[in-house]
Amino acid sequence: MHPIPRADRGAGGAGKSPHSSVEFVFDRSWVDELAERAARNGPWDDWTLFALAVEAERAKLVTSFDELQSLRCLPAFEPMPHQIATARKVLREMGGRAILADEVGLGKTIEAGLILKEYIVRGLVRRALILVPASLVLQWVRELNQKFGIPATAQKKAHTWHADFVVASIDTAKREPHRELILSRDYDMLIVDEAHKLKNRKTSNYQFIQQLRKKYCLLLTATPVQNDMDELFNLITLLKPGQLGGQSEFVANFVADKRLPKNEDRLQEALSAVMIRNRRSDGGIAFTKRIVRNIEVKLSPEEKALYDAVTGFVRERYDESGRDLASMLSLVTLQREVCSSRDAVFVTLFNLFKKTAEDSPMRAKIWELVEFIRRIRANSKAEKALELIRETGDKTIVFTEYRATQEYLLQFLKQHGIHAVPYRGGMNRGKKDWMMDLFRGRAQVLVATEAGGEGINLQFCHHMINFDLPWNPMRVEQRIGRVHRLGQTNDVKIYNLYTTGTIEEHIVRLLHEKINLFEMVVGELDDILERLEREEQPLEQRLARLVLEAKGDADIRRGIDALGRSINRLRADAKRTASAGGPEAALPVLSVVPDGPDAAAEGRP
Amino acid sequence: MNAKQIHRFVERYLDATGCAILEKSPAHFKVKLSPAADRELTNRPYYWSFVDRTGVEPETMTLLLVTDPAKYDAMTTGVKAGGGGDGQAAQAGGSGPAADGRQAAQTGGSGPASQAVPPGARPEAQADGAGSPAGAPGAAEQAGMAALSRSFGFVPAGIGARVPRDDLYFGSRRLEQLFAAARRGGRFVCLFQQPDERALHPYDSLPCTPWLGVNVKVGFVCDMKREELHAFGVSLATGAVVEGFFDRLQGMKLPPRLPANVHVTGASLSLKKAADLIEQALMRKLKAYDYGWAAAANGRLKEELAQLAHYYEPLVESAGEGEKESIAAQYEARKEEIRWQLAPRVVAEVVNAGLFHLTGLA
User: Fold this and answer.
1) Which residues are registered as beta bridge partners of B352?
2) Is the separation of the CB atoms in B321 and B288 below 8 Å?
3) Which residues does chain A have within 8 Å of residue B337's beta carbon, measured at their own beta carbons?
4) I need a labelling partner for B218 at 20 to 30 A (CA). Which of A270, A313, A488, B6 fits?
5) Considering only CA atoms, which of A397, A398, A449, A400 is closest in space to residue A425?
6) Which residues of B touch A77 (CB under 8 A)?
7) Which residue of A has its CA nearest to B157?
8) CB-based contacts of A554: which residues, under 8 Å, 6+ apart?
9) A213 and B12 in contact by Cβ < 8 A?
10) Rounded to a whole number, what is the distance in Å from the CA of B297 to chain A's nearest CA?
11) Do the chains contact at A47 and B191, CB–CB below 8 Å?
């Protein structure tokens, strides 16, 4: 093992110390060199440069232990107050080891960059390793360079490991030959993004991180604990072994049940020493408004005919299958696709056709549906979308769930003279970045199938069209989160397109009117969905069952209303327990607010 | 450092390294680097080793160093509005109209590539563009830059542009680089004080005494850090130690060669001895400081070590044979890290040092 403070020991006469509590090092390496030059009478350096060197050192001098020095070095942007407060706290009170657990969109990257910059300015960090999911590597490199002037490099080839500030994907880093190289070095600072992936100590990622040698360490995650006490313990132990005691003590002291903490005050205290979680609802963080408009689209008679035919087809299969939901999910997809575009339906039908035996009576039925598709001349929704895009005349992102719809829309927009580019999960990193660049540049519209893909930031755009709505509200929230985040300076306009007389109409009603999704706070939604799942089936499946079993429109309406009621009940529960701070408080571990009272999860984003 | 100080700093650096300033204003310099400065600043080791081995005439780079970006942008935009952008730059003899037209286009706003962008989206398109404020040039070049930045995440300003532009604000890379270059290029000096001409009698010879001047940066380090800069001077004749020596040199004329009518008195102290005296003086000074911060750091260190022990010792104890070693190693590693992070230390680092021959017999 290497003696660790190598840099500080170096060549120098360590000797007596001015005080018993400190080690003293006086660098004397210069004496010999000066004597040597004096003996040979040169070569001597330039007096102006000599003076400039002293001036430079004076300017860079860290005059105080406390004050943030990096702030005067960031002309490119101004961090938000909660980000500065976080950086200050990590430096002063946490000694540079912390879990940054802000809610999505509050700028954890900025906080980490600020802390890193501060340590660099103070000369305490010369070499840092930043491990992030592959899809975020370039974004990190860009942010660190552009916002903080930190010369970070994306790890590409073996030799890039020698750079001082390397951003790499953790999956690459943990594999040989990289692994050995990394483990043979000391890093002044380690930053791990999306650290909730490190919750299982048996995984190779966890063990790899555990073996790294580092001085300061930041773990970033928006979901610090997925409601599991074990995972919480593992994450904290990675950062600071012993902070929550040994495993058995932890269980004895803090765990009532796998998902339930006890002695919460003490747990909170122990956590707040290593974890900072800022929340949107804390206030002081200014977000622009979300303006939601639901746009009704009337299906043409041909489209309506297709919709009815598909609905009939799906129901029939469901009854045939003996009401087995699991095997029906692909057919439910069909029902949803029919609200999106005929192209999407066609692709699914075609695949279904290929899968069914040649002599199956199904084939004829599928063929009938294809006939319905053939009769459709225009896509009413696409026309509506075009109208909206023309109306705004501004950058717009269009989300759809289906690849076929995406292709269709791209072509449709192109025909009408609108420059649109695609974005989807299957693209490789380079292509995704390219599409982003195009959208930032000359393209007016981005048609995306994927909103997840952590870290697409589209603050420069504030119009968003949900061409079709996912049935999983989290995915809706993720979509919105791409655009409605810190740095967005305009009110965000969200248009939900829905076709009348179809299941979509009900979904929009549920998400918008019943659970008011579009104005909810991120953490809150997360919590509610989890509760829903614990009680019954996930929301998506409940919706699917409802659709398949309902006798008619009124029936669906009743079902949706009931669903809305039960979600609202859970939500009220969540609020009550959160404000009462009772034991069932939805694991307030999730909502640690070290700097203030644990505000109820309420308020507009 | 404010913009003015930075401007002054840059000017003196360029001057000292013999760079040719092609164009300047209170907000910027356009400069053709001298070979020495080019080696320091452009990060082209391969090119320079090629030059060294083949002996070809080196072609140094031209840089645009902007010390006050806001003012500079306002200025160049203004020039463009007046319709004289290219004219003015070409007159200044820069690197030809192509490069300058490009700058004007950039600050003026409408590159050919951005015409199709709807008005509301324009500013972001430009600001976030290819990561290269200097080169928002022709569409092809811009696409090239965008491709590079997609591949590497970030391309430092102006790679590929003929005259890369650097904004020098405090904390910017280029300024950091200038700081480092100054430090590398100004480590050891040997200078003589030029006496006041009028005070001299033509046949007299003034005695001057050799001094060792040392600039020391003292860092008080635990997981945080504070620094001080001290300038000590020791008379090599008498062993007298003074502080604030560097400031005392300001305003003196200090040529590198012995002036006429001056002679150097002998030194009675070796440099080694003088260095000892400085260390002692520093030590005396440091003894009077408050070490509360160090005690606090030691306290935290102790706590953290105890916490680690509490966690690891039972774990090592109860581990099976196969695991014992790896857990113990992990424990050791964690302890080392904590010491590395927290152990309080005072580190005195010498920025630069020199021999100064000053008139008088002190």
Assistant:
1) B215
2) no
3) 4, 213-215
4) B6
5) A449
6) none
7) A146
8) none
9) no
10) 9
11) yes
B291–A21: do the CB atoms touch at under 8 Å?
Answer: yes
More reliable by pLDDT, A434 or A593 = A434
- B interface test, pick of A23, A33, A41, A47 with most B CB neighbours within 10 Å: A47
Q: Parallel, antiparallel, or unpaired: how do β-strands A445-448 and A396-399 relate?
A: parallel
Nearest-CA neighbor of B238 among B360, B350, B133? B360
Cα(B135)–Cα(B147) distance, integer angstroms: 14
Compute the count of residue pairs across chains A and B with CB atoms less than 8 Å apart: 321
The residue among A1, A16, A21, A25 with the most chain B CBs within 10 A of its CB, best to mutate, is: A21
CA-CA distance, A184 to A198, in Å (whole number)?
22
Residues of B in contact with A37 (CB under 8 A): 188, 190
pLDDT (tens digit, 9 = 90+) per residue, A447-472?
A: 998 765 555 677 788 899 999 888 87
How much is the pTM? 0.71
Say yes or no for a CB contact (<8 Å) between B289 and A149.
no
d(CA A36, CA A30): 10
Which of A121, A243, A394 lies nearest to residue B121, judging by beta carbons? A394
Record: contact B340-A240, CB cut-off 8 A: no
| Structure-token pair, residue A318 | 């469901």
pLDDT of B102 over the 70 cut: no
For residue range A329-363, what is the model confidence (pLDDT) as tens digits? Answer: 777 888 888 888 888 989 888 888 888 888 888 88
Rounded Cα–Cα distance for residues B89 and B321 (Å): 76
Cβ pair A21:B344 closer than 8 A: yes
Paired residues of B190 in beta bridges: B355
CB within 8 A of A483, min separation 6: which ones?
A397, A458, A459, A461, A462, A464, A492
**pLDDT one-digit tens code per residue, A274-306:** 999 887 766 666 677 888 888 889 988 888 899
Partner-chain contact B330 A210, CB within 8 Å: yes
From the list A141, A146, A246, which residue is nearest B311 (CB)? A246
Chain A hits for B146, CB-CB cut-off 8 Å, are 434, 437, 441
In this complex, the residue of B146, B279, B337 whose CB is nearest that of residue A215 is: B337
Rounded Cα–Cα distance for residues A572 and B120 (Å): 41
Give dist(CA A83, CA A278) in Å, integer. Answer: 9
The encoded tokens of residue A585 equal 């408080």
For residue A190, how far is the Cα from the chain centroid?
20
Residue entry with tokens 């938000």? A80
Three-state SS sequence of chain B: CCHHHHHHHHHHHHHHCCCEEEEEECCEEEEECCHHHHHHHCCCHHHHHHHHHHCCCCCCCEEEEECCHHHHHHHHHHHHHCCCHHHHHHHCCCCCHHHHHHHHHHHHCCCHHHCCCCHHHHHHHHHCCCCCCCCCCCHHHHHHHHHHHHHHCCCCCCCCCCCCEEECCCCCHHHHHHHHHHHHHCCEEEEECCCCHHHCCCCCCEEEEEEEEEEEEEEEECCCEEEEEEEEEEECCCCCEEECHHHHHCCCCCCCCCCCCEEECCCCCCHHHHHHHHHHHHHHHHHCCCCHHHHHHHHHHHHHHHHHHHHHHHHHHHCCHHHHHHHHHHHHHHHHHHHHHHCCEEEEEEEEEEEEEEECCC
**Hey, of B225, B245, B304, which one would you mutate to test binding to chain A, going by the most A CBs within 10 A of its CB?**
B225
pLDDT of B334: 92
Cα distance between residue A220 and residue A275, in whole Å: 10
Find the closest chain A residue to B15 by CA distance.
A48
Tokens of A382: 């696409």
State whether A18 and B227 contact (CB < 8 Å).
no
The ipTM of this complex is 0.79
The mean pLDDT value for B170-188 works out to: 89
